[in-house]
Amino acid sequence: MTTQPSSPARYDAIVVGAGLSGLYQLYKLRERGLAVRVIEAGTGVAGTWYWNRYPGARCDSTAECYQYWFSDDLLNEWNWSERFPAQPETERYLNYVADKFELRRDIQFNTRVASTVYDEARGLWTVNTTGGERFEAQFLVMATGGLSSPQIPKFAGYDTFKGQSFHTGRWPHEPVDFTGKRVGIMGTGATGIQVIQTIAPQVGQLTVFQRTPNYAIPMKNPRYDEARMAELRQRYPEMKELVHNTFTGNDYDFGTVTFDELTPAQREARLWEYWHEGSLKFWVGAFGELFADQRVNDYVSEFVRARIRERVKDPVTAEKLCPKDYGFGTRRVPLETNYFEVYNQPNVTLVDTNADPIECFTPTGVRTASGEHALDVMIFATGFDAGTGALTAIDIRGREGLSLRETWARDGVHTWMGLQVHGFPNLFMIMAPLSPAAAFCNVPTCSQQQADWITNCIDYTRQQGRKAIEPSAEAEARWGEHHDELANATLVPKTRSWYMGTNIEGKQHRLLAYVGGASTYRYACDKVAAEGYSESVFS
Ligand code: NAP
Predict the structure, then answer these.
(1) How far is the CA of 168 from the centre of ligand 1 (A)?
(2) How many Å apart are CA 88 and CA 80, to the nearest integer?
(3) What is d(CA 326, CA 328) in angstroms, rounded to the nearest whole number?
(4) Mapped to the 3 state alphabet, what secondary structure does 250-262 carry?
(5) b/e map of 430-460 (b: 16 or more CB within 10 Å)?
(6) Contact present, 13 and 141 (Cβ < 8 Å)
(7) What pLDDT sits at residue 5?
(8) What is the DSSP code string of 265-295?
């Protein structure tokens, strides 16, 4: 006798991921009366802020912009302790939200999605987990995060290394003690910089393996007291609107006076003014032209290099830390606190892996062309398979067995506005490729905007009594062309970075995120919705 597999649990919608986007998506769909199940691989909520618990992890967006706007109670109750909160605080905030809105009852933790298949006849997605469970739902929302698939480059001999090793995106929950240890770190992006500046005072010896230096700029991070929170709360109603009307989903935008309208002295003054502001406003506020005009970019790049040279005592080390082969802001600008001063410490060594390449790992460390670097601990701050990695890790099959992984590998990444893909009815994505949320937007702003759009779209489809919605192939192709046209008008594609997919071997080199700006994108999303989802096909 054969046993019948139990029938799958059935929901109106399944959301994959209980990070910032997934929690909000759950709240919104539940508000519209849908039965929703969230499937989450971790043991807790918070996504990025659950996994990236490495030393020094901190938000580069200001607290007041990095939050939910949907509940006045929440806005009134929650007090931020500083301008750029550290990881534990943001994780606490997201746990507070999960408790306050009783979200946990609809979340299944410790469960990883392996595959998902669309049954066109029944209009249902079946979701299979690695543990063998099955779920069914009409709608499927992938809130799997843009930077959630960690990458460790392959090095000869890595398996022989006898020390401890960690990737920052899978940091253990237990504290790691670095006291007196010989620690190596690979990666000097936003993550590596935060780790380096945090652990340098604790470790015995720190060896930084740097392939590309970054134009990191200082973070100004004052504490927020009651008075400051009261001031901010006064501004919340205005900010809630403002963040959706800017280029990057923050509460500031590019200046209106252009580079050419200013005298050299005024340009310098403008840069200093934004520099002292101590946030990413220096990047996306001072001179918007730096993204497309090489002359302006060169000017700002030189300004930032000059600041690095002022802070690093050894001129040879300073030069290694100065980016020279790409322009400021064409890859993600990290914020830092005393990062460059770390290289003035006697226990810190900077290895430029272009000049002194890594040959292999050994049982006791890393060997570069110049010799062995003995290590007790190796930290990989080597980034993620951004945008696509979390989606292609799951075997997603749409109409007629079409595989998302295969169609993207064969035809290049294609999405309609980063929200849906032709051939995959009722599959929605948040922070996916070809939307601003994939890289160029303050995540809470754009992920809330996308989740709101998805909620309305699902509601509309149900109200119309339709089984499914998917974008037309023509609309998707139009979006791709528009995306590329804007991308290629900027300097960003000239630079190697995760924005361009160059950090992953074999990945297509194409700008991942839409550069038209968050406000323009929102307008485009709202327009198609107002026109009855004119770019989509219903079945
Ligand atoms: P990342 O920006 O991709 O940086 C990865 C680093 O690892 C780079 O320095 C890279 O060098 C290096 N690397 C990768 N493979 C290597 C190899 N085979 N050999 C030598 N070096 C190698 O990753 P990330 O720093 O984790 O940051 C990713 C994104 O997460 C950020 O851009 C940001 O959007 C987000 N983030 C935000 C915050 C925040 O808000 N505070 C903090 C951390 C991260 P190359 O540059 O030469 O490739």
Answers:
(1) 10
(2) 12
(3) 7
(4) CCCCCCCCCHHHC
(5) bbbbbbbbbbbbbbbbbbbbbbbbbbbbbeb
(6) yes
(7) 61
(8) HHHHHHHHHHHHHTSTHHHHTS-GGGGT-HH
Judged by DSSP in three states, 121 sits in: coil
Reduced to 3 states (helix: H, G, I; strand: E, B; else coil), residue 198 is: helix
- What is the residue type of 137? A
Selection from 483, 465, 467 nearest residue 419 by Cα: 483
Tokens of 63: 């607290």
> According to the model, what pLDDT value does residue 6 have?
75
Best of 185, 382, 385 for a ligand 1 pocket test (most atoms within 8 Å of beta carbon): 382
**Would the pLDDT of 535 be above 70?**
yes
Q: List Cα–Cα distances, 510 to 97, 146, 325, 345, in angstroms.
A: 36, 15, 19, 39
Percent of the chain with pLDDT strictly greater than 70? 99
Q: How far is the CA of 46 from the centre of ligand 1 (A)?
A: 20
Ligand 1 centroid, distance to 438 Cα (angstroms)? 15
Residue 253: pLDDT over 90: yes
Q: Nearest to residue 211, comparing CAs of 377, 326, 373? A: 326
Please report the domains of the chain, with CATH numbers, ordered by start residue: 9-45+103-149+385-538 (3.50.50.60)
Other beta carbons within 10 angstroms of residue 91's beta carbon come to 22
What pTM was computed for the model? 0.97
Asked whether 295 and 187 are in contact (CB, 8 A), the reply is no
In 9-132, beta strands by DSSP E: 9-16, 36-39, 107-108, 113-119, 124-129
Residue 1 — very low, low, confident or very high, per pLDDT cuts 50/70/90?
very low
Q: What is the three-class DSSP state of 374? A: strand
Angle at 93 between CA 87 and CA 96, to 5 degrees: 140
Structure-block tokens of residue 392? 């292609």
Alpha-helical (H) ranges within 66-151 are: 72-77, 87-100
Query: What type of residue sits at position 465?
Result: G
| Residue 60 Cβ contacting ligand 1 at under 6 Å | yes
pLDDT tens digits, residue range 479-500? 999 999 999 999 999 999 999 9
pLDDT, tens digit, 9 for 90 and up, residues 315-336 = 999 999 999 999 999 999 999 9
Q: Is 383 in the pocket of ligand 1 (CB under 6 A)?
A: yes
